[in-house]
Amino acid sequence: MIRVIGTYGRRVLRHRRVRTLVWGVAAFVAAGTGIVATIENVATAGDREFPVATDYSGRLVIQSTTDYMIFAPVIEAFQERWPDILITYNELTTNELNAAVEHACDQNRFMGDLIISSSIDQQLKLVNDGCAQSPGPRVGENLPDWAKWRDELFGLTYEPAVTVYNKAFFADREPPENRFDLIDLLRESDTFRAKVGSYDIETSGVGYLFAFQDAIQASTWGRLVESLGRNEAQLFCCTGEILDRVADGRLLLGYNVLGSYALSRIGRDDRVGMVLPSDYTLIMSRAAFISRDAEQPGLARAFIDFMLSAPGRAILSRDAGLLSPIDGPARLARLVGVPRDADPQELRPIALTPALLVGLDQAKRNIFLQQWRAALPPRQLSKHP
């Protein structure tokens, strides 16, 4: 079993929050998904401006699902190289961002220059639908084949889907090493009732991605979902909510949590532990593309180039806890102490290929969500504070 401890430093951030803003109309309806993102439920959306000391010569607008504090160090480092470039960073949830970009693309309207999301299936569909443009030759040439598609979509990170646990509760017992162990553990219904958290796959794009990949990869999927439902698993839109509750004991376990956020939390909170499942660990690379209607495509290309460069990768790893597809496997192995004889098949990157579109097929999605709802009917979190 691979457990993780570690520390990540953080630089003092000099950005400032400007305002809360939902781009375009007050509501975006995502075709085929029934998602409506309104001003009322986009609580985390908002522009954060990274200013320059003097008059700026250009503005790069980044639309992203990544916590701005995680990307802030690399944005500031980019501005050290481009000191006259003002950067506006807008943060939304995966489904909100996808709906907003889709709407802007349909309307041939500018929304942002660079689009970055952990919901890589949604990203690939947007690119496939013509919402992106190629940055030109040589961009991403050092990426592995699985982390790029059609010279328009580029994987920037190397992030495992992990199990997190409350260390105090598991002080005298082993946390689940793999999905088989997790299913066995959840037979203790009284112990884990309403004490296991995961993503709400109807509101979290990356949650849906991980769940659909689990259904493809694992013979355990049906039993696992049934076990989660029987134990009244709590569902959340965002990683931070799961980690907060695991840390304070409201949850004892979090399943399929983004490892980058977990690693960052572990570096400053010794109440949380993390396991890379030994049967297999999904690897997600949050993907970026330059919008077809970008006003500053050159700056967007420069930002992608910087993030994939050796200095950019070092900042991502050191200050943000984000590994890169280029050297991520080796860095992850060193970070978590993967044995030399470990089976490399345990780490399974989710490739940026058209196969990701299967899970977004409306008929297949509806069937998958019906099965999910049957096992995990909606519940009010207030019942289990």
TrEMBL record:
Where are its TM segments located?
21-39
Q: Which Gene3D superfamilies match?
A: Periplasmic binding protein-like II
A cellular component term from Gene Ontology for this protein is: outer membrane-bounded periplasmic space
**Coiled-coil regions listed:** none
Q: Which UniProt keywords apply?
A: Membrane, Signal, Transmembrane, Transmembrane helix
Q: Does the keyword Cell inner membrane apply?
A: no
Entry keyword Transcription regulation? no
Q: Which PANTHER family match?
A: PHOSPHOGLYCERATE TRANSPORT REGULATORY PROTEIN PGTC (PTHR30006:SF25), THIAMINE-BINDING PERIPLASMIC PROTEIN-RELATED (PTHR30006)
Protein name in the entry? Iron ABC transporter substrate-binding protein
What is the native source organism of this protein?
Thalassospira marina
